[in-house]
Design a protein that fits this description.
The protein is α+β, with helices and mostly antiparallel strands. It has 2 helices and 4 strands; from the N terminus they run E-H-E-E-E-H.
Length: 74
């Protein structure tokens, strides 16, 4: 029996409207565009971030936007 392949994609950014259209949120914008293009489910709150789950290329996929400030997470 073959194990299911799982993938995790994380887009880094800073939460809050003051960072929305800044270079600090390029990672958020990239994963948002990917989720929209691939018609994955909308992001929903999970733990300390926002998550979308679906399939891509035959693998289970989770896309995450952590809601921690970059200075706090490194």
């Amino acid at each position: 029996m073959e194990a299911e392949v799982r993938r995790l994609v994380v887009g880094l950014g800073n939460p809050g409207p003051e960072y929305e259209d800044t270079r600090h949120n390029v990672g958020f914008r990239i994963v948002e565009a990917f989720v929209a293009r691939e018609r994955l489910p909308a992001f929903h709150r999970k733990g300390g971030g926002l998550e979308s789950q679906g399939s891509f290329g035959g693998s289970r996929l989770a896309v995450l936007k952590p809601l921690l400030y970059m200075n706090r997470s490194g």
